[in-house]
Amino acid sequence: MNLVFRLAWRNLWRHPRRTWLTTGAMVFSNILLVFMMSLQFGMYSLMIDNSLQIFTGHMQVQAPGYKDDQKMRQIVPDIVPLANEIRDELKSERVAARGWAFALASSEDRSFGIGVYGVEPEFEARVSNIPGLVSSGRYLTENNAAEIVIGTVLARNLRVEIGDELTLLGSGVDGSFAAAVVDIVGIFESGVTDIDRNIAEIPLGIFQDTFFMEGAGHQIVVVVDALDVVPEVQASVRSVLPVSSNLVVPDWDEMMPGLKQAIQADIGSSFFMYFILVVLVSFSVLNTQLMSVLERTREFGIVMALGLRPGKLGRLVLLETAMMGLIGTVLGAAAGAILTSWFTTNGLAFPGMDEMAAQFNLPARMFPQINLLTLLAGPAIVFMFTMLAAIYPAVRLRWQNPVDAMRVA
Amino acid sequence: MHLFGILLRLAWRNLWRNHRRTIIMLGAIGVGVWAMIFMTALTRGMVDQMITDSIGVLPGHVQMHHPDYRDDPSISNRVSISDAALNEKFDDADFEAWASRVRVPAVITSERESRGVTLLGVDPAAERDISFFDYDEVEGRFLESASDQGIVIGKRLAETLETEIGKRIVLMSQDPENDIADRGFRIVGLYSANTKAIEQAYAYIGKTTAQKMLRVDDATTEVVFLGEDYRNVEPVYEAVTSAVDDTVLVQRWFDIDTYLGTMLGVMDGFVLVWVVVIFLALSFGLVNTLVMAVFERVREIGLMLALGMKPASILGQILIESMFLLALGLAVGNFLAWATIVPLQDGIDISVVAEGMEMWGASSMLYPKLYASDMILASGVVLLLGFLASLSPAWRASRYEPVEAITKV
Fold it and tell me: Smallest Cβ distance to A28: which of B72, B162, B280?
């Protein structure tokens, strides 16, 4: 065994340039794969987190059909006690009740139609990042104060400042005329124009009074620590719901199907590119190994004539390839890890990226996330394809007649 | 010239001395070039579709507004040029289409629900080519004239409002004095669009009707112009800017929709990066092949040098061999790309990830676009970089010492 090993190693370095060029192709692809995958998966988790953090949360308790229609009548009755029960059951504070209504917001100068959320001031900050994005003034504090927090763009369009009054006009849950006058206490800036223009938040108490909700609301948002516990928590939330109710608990994927699909589409196209890269590397390996076998035809003929079985020679070729593959894998993964960790600390940005990133609730600078999967998946696949590429040159030896082989010029 | 002919023949014959190696390398180059062009065609198709979908319609290629309108889209910020003056200026101009309209935010209320919409007061005759739906495919009917008394809304909005054709809704907006301007309308038609979001967003009424409702005589808030090609909007832009003064703001589509504008630029960058990455993966194999080809022929090259062939001819011979290889590979790759893209030009159905593509702003059918310029770019990059990569092995071959080379075993 030791002999075969030494033989393979020496054969590998008969043409150092060739070996290095072939390993170079592997190292190049491995660096690229490690870096791109780290970047991608870092981006996906950020995309999910950021999108869900704004409003959606990981799951919500809603009336059936609410996620599609958002109608006033699709209510969750006695929402505050129910939210409390869920908090007790999950032993988590990251649960908040909300109402949502469409209303015409009027200042002295302007009127705009906006979506008004009624939120629990005490809990909203634990499920949404809007409270943390208040850039001037403060967030809501009391459940029964006639106050409102609006987005920067809306504030500009309505020509209002903190301390000004806004009139909200809309229709209540029973279709009757609903109106409220509220003071602007805070202005938030999420950076997403649609949110900063179209959303306002008022305390749930005021919301329920204004829109004649009689204790009801529209959604209870639940946030959990990690995506993989969602199904489990979903089940415990369901167990708390009153038996007679027909409330449903959609998870984030049901509420925002676009998010997962955008990720899938991106994975699909990038895997096509990775695949091409890996195929090109295997062509390189195939070429090198075939050449290295062909140029040794006479040598192989002699050792076969001396009694070495072709199977053993085939294993020798595979062993050479495996050694070369290992060098490429180790060097590539190491170099990929170094490159990626540099970007992990310094971040990556290219011109135009901030525009693209904003579309998906991403920051303007991206930080790849390196982990065992992103570090090893690419190099492992490259190694596998390297071995596959060596099969033809190795198997070819079986059909070799020793006498003919020795005669090759 | 005679010498060049000999070199060509030598290079061509040398190329086929080791036909296995040449064929494997041709396969690698073919696959690489195919992937370059195929992937490029897919992304081009996607971006083209995104842009024609979103600017070939409503927004047009060039828009004219009051300078403050974009930040404060209110009826107070009207275009200073009257419709009569606009007609005089642009009726003879060489645009594909142009239209002036009233576009303001409004609130639409049915008996059940209310929602915010963008109110469009249009002249149906002028907007036919700028509309994102076909007038004939509107359920019910589209507006018949600028003074039509009906309203046309999206199907999805009708569902949300729980209303239908023939029913009445109330539209509420502001007049220039900031007083509420409202009016009842009978729904005469429902349009469909690519996305639910668009079906929720726009409500169409006649332009004159809108002007009466908002009490603005014959003023409008937006004028749009459509040219022949979204990639070349300068002629339209020039024609419009030269006809107006600076009381209005004229903008191109990429000034307005910066996401799409950036997307176009980023995609051009992406295409180049992708082509170069694939080439780098190929280059290892290419250099390897040449190094081996030279190595096998050391004695022969030494002999040619000893017989008086100039080193420059050796260099040229190797370079020509490399160019032959690349040119053949390019032919294979370009043909493969053409042969795979043409059958797909009727569109690839990717509706499984439709909502995800909607997040990107793309539609659920992908139409690959094969541009001659992309094929030329890919081929040019491969030839140029391939030439540079071949220089080193060719240079080394031409520098052999004849005596040493001949005696080399």
Answer: B280
Taking a contact as any Cβ pair under 8 Å apart, which residues of chain B between 261 and 290 contact chain A? 261-263, 265-266, 269, 274, 277-278, 280-282, 284-285, 287-289
The span from the CA of B26 to the CA of B19, in Å, is 10
Whole-prediction pTM value? 0.81
Q: Which residues of B touch A276 (CB under 8 A)?
A: 31-32, 35, 39, 278
Scanning A251-270 for CB atoms below 8 A from B yields: 257-265, 268-269
Q: ipTM strictly over 0.85?
A: no
Return the SS3 of B141: coil
Q: What angle do CA B307, B309, B311 make, to 5 degrees?
A: 130
Helix (H, G, I), strand (E, B) or coil at A245: coil
**Which residues in chain A touch residue B117, judged by CB atoms under 8 angstroms apart?**
113
Distance CA B334, CA B376 (A): 10
> Cβ distance A119 to A132 under 8 Å?
no
Which contiguous run of DSSP H or E holds residue B184?
strand B180-191
Mean pLDDT calculated for residue range B329-347 = 90
Domain boundaries, chain A: 2-51+259-407, 59-250
Which of B385, B396, B395 is closest to B286 using CA atoms? B385
Tell me how far apart the alpha carbons of residues B197 and B189 are, in angstroms, rounded to a whole number: 18
Cβ proximity of A185 and A44 under 8 Å: no
Q: What is the pLDDT of residue A231?
A: 93
B116, B130 in Cβ contact below 8 A? Answer: no
H helix intervals, A142-192: 152-158
Q: What does the pLDDT look like over B259-279, one tens digit per residue?
A: 788 878 888 888 888 888 999
A200 has which bridge partners? A116, A150
CA B293 to chain centre: 43
Q: Are B345 and B367 in contact (CB under 8 A)?
A: yes
Q: Are A389 and A283 in contact (CB under 8 A)?
A: yes
Chain B neighbors of A257, CB-CB under 8 A: 355-356
